[in-house]
Amino acid sequence: MDLNYTPEQEAFRADVRQFLEDNLPDDIRERVQKSLRPDKAMTERWQKILFDKGWGASTWPEEFGGPGWSPIEQLIFEEECALAGAPRQLDFGLRMVAPVIMTFGNDEQKERFLPGILSGEDWWCQGYSEPGSGSDLASLRTSAKLEGDHYVVNGQKTWTTLGQHADWIFCLVRTSTEGKPQQGISFLLIDMNNPGIEVRPIIMLDGEHEINEVYFDNVKVPAENLIGEENQGWTYAKFLLGHERTGLANVGQWKALMKRLKQVAREEQDGQRPLIENTRFRDRLAQLDTELRALELTVLRVLTDKRGPGPQASILKIRGSEIGQRLFEMLMEATGQDAIAHIPDALELDYTGPRVGSGDATPPAGDYFNMRKLSIFGGSNEIQRNIIAQLVLGL
Amino acid sequence: MNFDLTEEQQMLNDSLRRFVSNELGFERRAEVIASGKGTDPATWAALAEMGLLGFTFPEDYDGLGGNAVDTMVVMENFGRGLVVEPYLATVVLAGGLIRDQGSEAQKAEILPAIASGERLLAFAHSEPGARYNLSQVNTKAEADGDQYRISGAKTAVLSGGQAQQLIVSARTSGASGDEQGLSLFLVDTAAVGVTINDFATHDGQRTAEIQFSNVAVAASQLVGRLDNAFPAIEKAVDLGIAALCAEAVGAMEAMNATTLDYIKTRKQFGVAIGKFQVLQHRMADMFIQTEQARSMAILAATEADSDQRAQRREALSMAKTLVGQAARYVGQEGVQLHGGMGVTDEMFAAHLFKRLTLINLLFGDADHHLAQVSDGLLAASA
Questions:
Q1: For FRET with B381, which of A31, A130, A205, B9 sits at 20 to 30 Å CA-CA?
Q2: In CATH, what number does B122-227 get?
Q3: Interface pTM (ipTM) of the complex?
C-alpha cells in the first residue's frame, strides 16, 4: 500500500503541467477561471490544441488515436487541466458515445465516427431522456421504424445539453414494443442536419441556454447508423452510464474549485478581517476539504482496483455531485450579499460595465443555481442509491 | 499509487478474520466482559502466538518489523468482531512509544515482554479538564537525587487497571499548556503512591482513573528526551488514531452486514422491510459513509508512521473527523434500521453502535479534529 505517485507519474504530471503552461491560451484560461459563459469556439479551439499534441482523448486506447494512458495518468491529466484553467472537453463524444462505438460498433462505424470526435470536428449530444422518461428511462417512446435501408424516427428528446451546437446526436429509440420495455430499445446515431429535426432551447434557472428539446418528425436515418444489434440498445446504454459515472466524480475540477474557494475566502472581507478568519465559515470549508479528500482517495481506489469499476461507481457520482454542489454554494456564500445581483452580460470576457463587489470574478450565484443539476443528471442521486441497494447490497 | 495489501498482509487478514469469527464470537466476548478482567489470557496468548503482539516491533526485539498498515489490518478485524483485548493500549500506544522513544535497555526489556504476551502496558496521558488538548498536562515529575517524584491525576487511561506498567506523561518544566517541558516515565502500577480506579467502559473494554502521589521513579525510567516528549506524544496519539480509524471501519462493515441481514429477513406488512425504498436508501448511505471512512482509514495508516509532522497531523485529523462522523451515522442508522431490537442488549448491532460511539470520543472527536483541519487552513493562509 503506497499512496504516493511513482516518479514516472510525477514526471508525467510535470510534462502535462509544462504543456498546459505553454499551450493553454490566456483568454481561455481567464474565461474558465472566472466561470464566464462557455463558448463553442473556445471548446473547439482547445480540443484542436490537445488533438495536435496527440492528447485529444485522454481516456482512449492508442488503437483509436488516444494516448493509451493508465487510469491514474488520465486522472493526473484531468487534475492538471482543471488546475491550469483549461476548459472541460466535451464528454458526449469523447467519453460517452466513443466507448460505445469502440466496444459495440462495427469497423466502418469506428472509422467513420471516431476521428471526428477526436479532432473535435464533430460536436455530439445525447438523446436519452424524454418528457415522459426521466429516471424511468426504459419507458422511452421515440420510435424508429425500419423502412428499407433506413429508419424513420419520430418523437421527442429533452434535456439535450449543448444540443444547439451539435452535428450528431446519439439516441435511444424504440424499435419494438414486444416484451419488457428494456428489450425493444436500439442505439442510433443521427445527423442533426437531417430534415425533420428541430432543436428548441430550454432556458435554465440561471437564465442560460445550455439545454434543449429535440423534436424528430419523420427523420430518415440510414440503417448503417445503428450501433450493434437492434433491440440491444439498453445493454449499450447501461455500459455508457457506467463510463459516465466514473467521470462524474469530477475530482480534478473540484480540487481546482476548492483552491479557488480558499483564495476567495482569503480575499473577501468580513468586516475588519478576511473571511478565512471567520471560524464558522472556515470550519465548513475544512469539512468540505476533508470530504473532498475522502472522495479523491475513493476514486483512486476504484481506478486502481483490478476488478474495474462496478456498481460502486455510483458512490462516486453521489459524492462527486454533492461535494461539487457545496463548493458552488460556498463560493456564492463567500461573496455574501454581492452574490445577489444578476448581471448576465458580465459572463462575457469583453464586459466592461459596472460590477458588484470587490473581486473581478463574477458573483457565482448563477453557478450555484445551475449546479443543482449535478445531483439530477446522469442518473439522479436517488437512482444511484437504488443501484447501490440493488446491485451492491442485494436488496 | 497502490491500495493493495501485500501477500503477507492478505494472509494475515484472512487468518485473523477466521480466528475472530471462529474463536471470539459474541457469546465468548460476553464472557470475557463479564469476567471484569479486560482481557482473556487464552486469547491474548493466541495473539502472541500469531505474532500480533510484537507485529510492529523491530525483529531484534522479537517483533516482525511491521508498520501502521499492518496495524490497520489487525484493527479492522478486531473492529469487525468487537474484540475487547487491550491491543490498542499495550501494543499500539505503549509499545509504539517504547519502540520509537525507548532506550536500548528499555526496548530490550519491554518489547519482547509485550510480544510474548506476558506484560500489559498502558499510556497514561489525558488529564481531567484537558479534554483533547495534548499539551494540557499538570502532573508533575520533580527531580529528587537520582530519581523523580511524580504527582498528579490521569483520566481515560485505556486498560490502565490491567497493565503492569504505565507510560506516564508529566511536566518536568514549563506551565500547563506548554508543549515544551513534557517528559515520559515508565511507572509500575504496583509502585507506592499509585492509586487506580478501574472502570468498565460502555463497549466492554476497561478504562482507569489514576492518581500519583509522590511516586518515586528511577531516572533510568525516563522514556525519550527530558522536556521534549511532546512530539512523541503526538506521534503515539496519531498511531492510536490510525488504529481506531481502522477498527471503526471494521465495525461499520460489520454493522452494515448485520443490518443488511436483518432488513432482508425481518418482515412487516407482508414483505421483508428491505424491500422498502426508504430503508434501501438509508442502507445505501451507510455503505457510502463506510467506503469514505475506509479511504480515510487507509490515509491514516499510510501517514501515521511519517515524521513529517504537519502533513501527518493534517491527514490524521481529516481521517478522524470523517471516520468519527461516519461512525456516528452508521452506528445510529444501524440501530434505527433494527427497530426495537436495535436497542436491546442481545443484538450485535447495539454493541457495534456503542463501540463506534466511543471511538469517536477517543483521542479527539470529529469536532475537535475538524477544528484542527480548520486552523490548519488559517495557518496556511497566513
A1: A31
A2: 2.40.110.10
A3: 0.96
